[in-house]
Amino acid sequence: MQQNNPKKKRNSLSRLLWWNIDGEELREQIAKYETLKITRSARGISCLCLLFCAAAISFLIYTEGNFFLLIDIFIILILATFTYRGHQGAMVAAMLYLTLTKLYGITQVPQTLILGIMIWNLFMKALYLAFRVERERKKHPPIVLENQ
Fold first, then answer.
1. Residue 97 within a domain
2. What's the rounded Cα separation, in Å, for the pair 95 and 136?
3. Domain total for the chain?
4. What domain range is 47 assigned to?
5. Which of 123, 129, 133, 132 is nearest to 54 (CA)?
6. Considering the domain boundaries, does residue 98 fall inside one?
7. Which residues contact 102 (CB under 8 A, 6 or more apart)?
8. pLDDT tens digits for 38-56?
9. Helix axes 42-64, 88-108, angle to 10 degrees
């Protein structure tokens, strides 16, 4: 007889639905906000995704010599910094910026459509989870007990 796992099993389609956030994951992120490592926290993973974008763009600058892309790196690094610090506005700006740049990239090189959507989906999931964590933390700030 099989035991039922209390966690929901996720099928491959649910991974594409980045706006569906698991309540247990959200609660864990909020509860362990200060102690999670950068590779485990929603804001840390979002920051790492943005840093990966900056690294990929710097590789394009190296291979193509298009120094106009330095502006993209500068914007992304600012967004990554404020995302890691927990600023909701930076997370929304990063989602919009990555969406617009991805759409522009797909119009320039249509062959990258599938890969572009997959990468965009991963980044949106990370950024949206970080946004939700910050929004919930703002709704329910932690209680600080003063020593008397």
1. yes
2. 18
3. 1
4. 38-138
5. 123
6. yes
7. 116, 119, 120
8. 999 999 999 999 999 999 9
9. 40
Please give the Cα distance from 132 to 148 (Å, whole number): 34
Distance of alpha carbon 27 from alpha carbon 32, whole angstroms: 9
pTM reported for the whole predicted model: 0.80
**What tens digit of pLDDT does each residue of 69-88 get?**
899 999 999 999 999 999 99
Q: Is 116 exposed, middle or buried (0-12, 13-18, 19+ CB in 10 A)?
A: middle
Q: 59, exposed or middle or buried, with CB in 10 Å at 0-12, 13-18, 19+?
A: exposed
The answer on pLDDT for 11 being more than 60 is: no
Predicted pLDDT of residue 1? 44
Establish if 127 belongs to a structural domain. Answer: yes
For residue 22, being part of any structural domain is answered with: no
